[in-house]
Design a protein that fits this description.
Strand content: 25-35%
Radius of gyration: 31 Å
Largest sheet: 7 strands, antiparallel
Distance between the termini: 57 Å
Number of helices: 2
Strand order of the largest sheet: 14-3-4-9-10-11-16
Order of helices and strands: EEHEEEEHEEEEEEEEEE
Length: 256
């Protein structure tokens, strides 16, 4: 069967040959292939951009959470209670009157009406527990305020641990723990940066602030009572910490 068209000039019917149809199909196929390839590249670029933005947002959340919480260290502590409990390359622990369920509490950093009673949340001697990923346990004493009640400050712990939820072998997850409670995941798909520790520390010195050498870590408040005669020398180095430097990278969790 041959398709015919009317030639307006001659008035005669003219048909398409098989060769013309094949050429048209080839040209059409090339155009569609190019269009589909263009759409595929566009989709890959979009997916890559979304992955990049998700990774960046994850990293920003990690830094924001650490910045918000670490800056509260030392808030409303009772006599003898240390500010920094443990300072390691992958773990940092500190005391802070971080949250309260008592309305109009002028000392706690945050108010949470759903929080348990502030005394019930405070780590006491009976709640002594190991700092995650270490052999160090805290506290050695029950820190009490002037009325004899346990102090209101919580012990906040951040620690990095290998991430088992991806196929990568080099990524980590960050957890946050309050007192002896169950650790809560902050974020995963995190990376070390060029083999550096996640946490580094700055201390006071005669000229301002200096870095604490990595080979001196970890530091722990091994003296039960902060400021006591025994809390001097090497044991008191942890008390000189005034800043925490965080170095961390992020990944989308995929190989490569």
């Amino acid at each position: 069967m041959k398709m015919r068209l009317r030639d307006p000039c001659s008035g005669l019917a003219r048909g398409f040959t098989i060769v013309e149809l094949l050429v048209s199909l080839v040209v059409f196929g090339l155009v569609m292939t190019g269009a589909l390839r263009f759409l595929q590249v566009q989709n890959q670029g979009f997916q890559k951009g979304m992955s990049y933005m998700g990774t960046l947002q994850n990293l920003r959340y990690v830094v924001g959470t650490l910045e918000q919480d670490v800056q509260t260290a030392g808030t409303n502590l009772v006599s003898g209670q240390p500010e920094v409990v443990y300072a390691g390359g992958d773990v940092v622990a500190f005391n802070s009157d971080y949250a309260t369920s008592t309305p109009n509490d002028p000392f706690a950093v945050f108010f949470d009406p759903d929080l348990e009673d502030r005394v019930g949340r405070t780590m006491t001697r009976a709640q002594r527990t190991a700092i995650p990923q270490t052999s160090f346990a805290y506290p050695d004493s029950t820190y009490r305020d002037g009325s004899g009640l346990p102090g209101p400050a919580e012990t906040l712990i951040f620690f990095f641990t290998p991430d088992d939820d991806t196929n990568r072998t080099d990524d980590f997850a960050l957890y946050r723990q309050v007192n002896a409670e169950e650790p809560q995941l902050v974020a995963n798909d995190l990376l070390r940066v060029e083999g550096q520790p996640f946490f580094r520390y700055m201390k006071e010195s005669g000229t301002g602030v200096d870095s604490i050498a990595d080979n001196l870590l970890p530091l722990a408040h091994s003296i039960p009572i902060h400021g006591s005669p025994a809390d001097t020398g090497r044991a008191s180095l942890v008390d000189s910490i005034r800043a925490v430097r965080v170095t961390v990278g992020a990944t989308n969790g995929k190989e490569g």
